[in-house]
Fold this protein.
Amino acid sequence: MKKENKLVILLILIVLVIGGFLIYRYLKSNKYDWKETYSTSSNEPYGMSLFKTLLEETNKVKEVKRAMRYANLDTVNTNSVYLFIHHETHYDEASFAALLKFIRNGNQAFISTNYINFVPLINYKSREEQYDSTDISIDSLKEDKAKEEFFSQSFAIDTLSCLTFKEKNDSIIQVNFWDEEMAFPAPINYDYYARMYRLEWFNTNWSYIDYTNCETTIKPISYMETDSGKVHQCVQMQIGKGRLYVHSQPLQFTNYHLLTEEKFNYINRLLSFFPKNANIIWDKFSHRPPYFQPHVDRDTPLKFILKEPALQSAWYLLLLTALLYFIFFIKRKQREIPVLAPLKNSSIEFTETIGQLYFQNRDNKMLSKLKMKLFLAFVRSNYQLSTKKLDKSFIHKLARKAHLSTKEVAGIFRLYQKIKESDQVYDDTLILFHQKIEYFYQHCK
């Protein structure tokens, strides 16, 4: 078979394979992924990249991908906020004890979830029995001091145990604040979109909080309207010197719900409870049971590539191209020896071309502005002076550093101001401006 025929067959094969791959990816993928990931790096509807950006504008955000008992919460300052946003929490006993101690020391915690897993902490016969029979890491609590600290936090569990998460099944809900000063004129609608065979509204279970059996004082923050009336969506609890906020709708923090102005403002008002310039400790670990995950969730470059659809397609296409290259071009070929043309100095031609271009346009005002930009750049580079404000103080500093008279330096800026205010700049004015700048270049030190 001739070499030309082999090349044609190879090209046809490559086009068919790449075309088939792209068609497969197009048919397989939807425009958006409507899974509830709550990922801070995801731009999909139910990711939280927008909310993370909003937080980072005024706060220092640190994502923690390990259990709270290993997060050294007792070493942070009192201007800190613990943040958890996901469908469900799974705290082990030691981690939740560390979180309660963190709040009691004067910090704040904000937990937005459809359900808080308190079962391992609440169902106990006595504090001592729970400690001895629990399935927590003995190594982390075997010392007497650690044991005493664990028991010292247990009383706060009685307060949390009275919170009950209930659900309302609907496609749309309405929310607002209890406080009249914070409340919006009308409740805000929240809907739920999902994709089955097509993108459409779906009913979902909207969680709310019931604390009718609580003896401790709990301050309601926001509510959700149901057929039976208003129910609590966010509440505040005082624990020691700090506060715990429990919020029942994590979906409200996702990208999809932050696209409208009223929902964006609703989240902004929730964030107003945080201290200014707070250190945000974002828990990215406790949304799954501890026995399903390692102490540290390590992200690798390949894992990131395969997670993003566009990068995943590019990665597979790269592997396929490499395979085809290996199959058809495995034989060693003589490399062609290129003919190197001698280097040509085109600087003079370039300068002449630019000069002719400006000469033909006769735009003296534009030339003056360009010369002034170059002059100011020279001043910044050589004398380390800011050129944002060209006032008398700046002129005196420049004259002193350049070892020139104030009159000579001021003349440059007076003439430039005159050029800026003129509708037309004549050749004589441009020449005079050029001469003044050249005099500065030649005599400055």
About this structure: The chain has a mean pLDDT of 77. The two ends are 76 Å apart (CA to CA). The longest strand covers residues 229-239. The chain has three domains: 3-30+308-327, 49-136+143-298, 362-443.
